[in-house]
Amino acid sequence: MKGRLVYVMGPSGAGKDSLLAWLKDHLPPHMPVHLARRTITRPPKADDEQHHSVSAHAFEQLSDAQAFALHWQANGLRYGVRHDELSPLHLGKWVIVNGSRAYLPQALSRFPHLTVVHVTASIDVLRQRLLARGRETPEMVDARVRRALAFKPPAHAIEVRNDGTLAEAGAQLLHAFERL
Question: Number of helices and strands (H, E) in the chain?
Fold first, then answer.
């Protein structure tokens, strides 16, 4: 199997982290996949994705040292994927990166053969999930939903609807991967 870089993105509330966690537990043995661990300027939480947590200053030092293959800023945080997280590509593995919609053009310019996955859900589901988190005001949630509506993924992107169960969305993603 040839190495492939997969860039997963989508609006807040679409369930990207949940879908990637499901995928990790349900990958077929013939699919050698590495889920790239991100470096983020936020402390880890028990129910959060596993990531390297660093201060803003440490992130800046890593960035200045060219430690990141990909890096962006979103929602007041800095995100980066270190070069060593992409090294499994050289072993023929697939590497899945949880990315940002806004950073997609830069990611595609660095990695033109990137496989793009757009995880989304209906507007009502996005709104419900974001409100249930309780992290933002209803006005902030509406702004996020408007950004989700305005975003148009590239024509070649794999679209995964995550309106139902994680197993249904996961099956969509696995089926799409098997067709690649």
Answer: 6, 9
DSSP letters of 83-98? GGGGGGGGGT-EEEEE
Give the number of other Cβ atoms within 10 Å of residue 127's Cβ: 18
Query: Distance (Å, rounded) from C-alpha 112 to C-alpha 114?
Result: 6
Closest CA to 38 of 74, 64, 11: 74
Integer Cα distance of 54 and 39 in angstroms:
7
Question: Which has the closest alpha carbon to 73: 105, 99, 45?
Answer: 99
Does pTM surpass 0.70? yes
Averaged confidence pLDDT in the chain: 92
Domains and CATH numbers, the chain: 4-179 (3.40.50.300)
Q: What is the dihedral of CA 97, 70, 77, 9, to 10 degrees?
A: -40
